Amino acid sequence: MPGKLVTLTQMETRFKADVLVAMLSAYGIYAVYLGWKESSDLYSIKVVNIDLANAQALLVAAVNS
What we know:
Shape: globular
CATH topology: Alpha-Beta Plaits
Helix content: 40-55%
Number of helices: 2
Strand order of the largest sheet: 1-3-2
CATH superfamily: Hypothetical protein rpa1041
Number of strands: 3
Distance between the termini: 31 Å
């Protein structure tokens, strides 16, 4: 996997994190989430830096649909 992982967004629940990772994966974007941390109560969604712009566009489209 060339590139490095960068944060796309954060989700409040594991379910939402799973759904977003699945959607991105369906579009060929490698995505993972890093688990819950007591300090933030959020799941951090990570993508490869070269896919960040496409992942952001998909996220905006999903939110606006």
